[in-house]
Amino acid sequence: MKKTIANWGNYPVMETEEKTFTFEEQLSDALLHSDGIIARGNGRCYGDASLAKNTISTLKYDKVLSFDTEQGIFECQSGLMLDKILEVIVPKGWFLPVTPGTKFITVGGAIASDVHGKNHHVDGCFSHHVLEMDVVLGSGETVTCSPTSNTELFWATCGGMGLTGIITRAKFDLKKVESSYIKQKQIKAQNLEEVIELFERYKHYTYSVAWIDCLKKGKHFGRSILMLGEHAKLEDLDEEKKKDPLKLPNKKQITFPFTLPSFVLNQLTVKAFNFLFYGKNFKREINNVISYEPFFYPLDAILHWNRGYGKKGFVQYQFVLPLESKQGLIEILKRISDKGLGSFLAVLKVFGKQDDLISFPKEGYTLALDFPVRKGLFEFLDELDKVVLDYGGRLYLSKDARMKSDIFWKGYSNANRFSEIVKKYNPDFKFNSVQANRLSITH
Amino acid sequence: MPTVLILGATSDIGFAIARKFASQKYGVQLAARNVDQLETFKSDISIRYGVPCSVHSFDAEKFETHADFYQSLEVNPDVTVYVIGYMNDNDKVIRNWNESLRTINANYTGAVSILNIIAEDYVQKQGGTIVGISSVAGNRGRQSNYMYGSAKAAFTAYLSGLRNRMYHHKVHVLTVLPGFVNTKMTEHLQLPKLLTAEPEEVATAVYNGVKNHKNVVYVKWFWKWIMLIITSVPESMFKKKKL
Asked: Between residues 36 and 75 of chain A, which touch chain B (CB distance below 8 Å)?
């Protein structure tokens, strides 16, 4: 079906011919009859990574195949979304090994983007928990790969943005939990120095992330709220919660009803929002036990929150800088606050060690923030890209909609090796996306 | 635990209905021509919802097999849903008798054949529910789709007669008229988004219709009014339109 699509940032927007499949035969058939294809899950990457002339939606390929409740091993088709998985595994005492900030993504998307979560410094990326997967190549052939077999294909597919083929099945391990609750600690930090210090002091926590106010200058530059968490044990629960420790959270969702005019978001409204957000934590430290839903997925409670950025859409900018490049982080934050282009909140996290073929994370600081699309933005981001590169960093492909190709090739040290493997498995570039073409990976 | 039988379970709507009933703690019997295709559906339903799920081979066009098929079910279902439907391009269908026959059999004759058998069982039991997924295309014939439409019209009339008879035997008969649905069958069509339902919405309408003992349900409420307008246009005018 001809469709107009955009990913989460609503930028860019394009027309695509979308095909769906319920059975593998239908997929092979679709592959035979089209070219310039990319797999697409729920469209929650932000930019143009899953945009192409032809898209194959995996959303109907969403069956649970097996669930070993003793060992905590889950197997499913690639179009299954994390929210559905949680509904099955949480009542049995298991949790996702790694989850990003939304549960509305597919397993295929989680692998293709090699998503990370608040526990990256402890548990690594999603791919580190994948035991095996099937990838359907352009010829229609299905190849099973894992960390021990067809390893080249495996590592080029984890974080490979769908350029090796279509992920159709995955088997991965889960995390054992005693309850569906999170024991949370929130600490206010006056400035950037303090929050970085706090990250270091609390690095034994499984989950950690900070929300940082990018517009603040002076001695409160980089003021933040650090959020830490552990899966609550039975003994952490009050009597009421103990009755049903693995209870699923109630579904409470509101829908952002319409697209806001772009002018509504300006420095004043953003500053006011940040003030309220920081100010709502009255005490310096808060300790409580909450459901996993608000801890991991605070924004999922508002369906279509991306409409808040207006018709022109927004881009999310996420980079990682090595630990020794704290100066780079300060420089970038300064440029953002000087320019006043900032978003509501930026998310800061310290990644643990990782050195995979093409996955985004590596040890260091990662910062993610939204910028509404407007005049002058892309020029400004090009300047930031240079700073990121100078300090030995790189950008996250799942968020990207606009970087120049040299930023990719210089930032990802294994880009050449990755490109060779893509050529081996996808020789005619039957699979390509607007992003892969822009970054000169597939042409 | 009650059991639901889905005839045509490999279709998008069929499987959505299966998931909906499973989520409400019904045991599920999935029936379709290609049983192999049902294996992943079975694991999905039994793991997700923790209800028993079995798969069965059923071909609507092979009437002679229907009695044995129903006999072979280990549990007689409390609710039977006939979801099977077949729609091809009308020009192709009228030019090819096999296609015409297929359209009639999948949408109507096959349904009559199996539902006659099941209805008899329900009469014996003095209970049960039969759901037929028909179509608004059956409310009035249009030049672009009258082969599919006429078969559905026959099915709708069959269901209404069956409902009348079964009422006296405490058997509930539900007719579902979905309007446009976003499925594999309509993937090549450009459907107006506002008028198009998702398979999950059809499934919810079916489940609620069963629960609340409805007779006829339109999945999106305004289809009832759209069809009221379409059916009230005088034939002398209607025939001149290109619909």
From this structure: 60, 63-67
Q: Could you read off the pLDDT of A191-245 as tens digits, one per residue?
A: 999 999 999 999 999 999 999 988 888 899 999 999 999 999 999 999 999 999 9
Tens digits of residue pLDDT in A242-285? 999 999 998 766 777 777 776 666 666 767 777 777 777 778 89
Chain A residue closest to B193 (CA)?
Answer: A3
Number of domains forming the structure of chain B: 1
Chain B nearest-CA residue for A17: B188
Token pair for residue A285?
């430290």
Average pLDDT of chain A is 93
Which letter, b or e, does each residue of A61-71 get, where b requires 16 or more Cβ atoms within 10 Å of its Cβ? bbbbbebeeee
Q: What ipTM was assigned to the predicted interfaces of this complex?
A: 0.89
CATH code, domain carrying B25:
3.40.50.720
Spatial CB neighbours of A375, under 8 Å, sequence gap ≥ 6: none
Flag whether B200 is in a domain. Answer: yes
Asked whether the beta carbons of residue B187 and residue A20 sit closer than 8 angstroms, the reply is yes
Report chain A residues whose CB lies below 8 A from the CB of B189: 1
Contact at 8 Å (CB) between A341 and A383?
no
Q: What pLDDT, on a 0 to 100 scale, did the predictor assign at position A262?
A: 67
Q: Tell me, yes or no, whether B243 lies in a domain.
A: no
Find chain B residues with C-beta within 8 A of A26's C-beta: 184
Please report whether residue B138 resides in a domain: yes
**Does a structural domain hold residue B116?**
yes
CA distance A104 to A96: 13
A21 three-state secondary structure: coil
pTM: 0.93
Q: Residue B156 class from Cβ within 10 Å (0-12 exposed, 13-18 middle, 19+ buried)?
A: buried
Q: Which residue range(s) make up the domain with B37? A: 3-238
Of A23, A77, A88, the CB nearest to B48: A88
Instruction: Extract the runs of DSSP E, i.e. beta strands, from A37-79.
Output: 37-40, 54-57, 64-68, 73-77
22-51 in chain B: CB under 8 A from chain A: 37, 40-41, 43-44, 47-48
**What does the pLDDT average to over A31-43?**
92
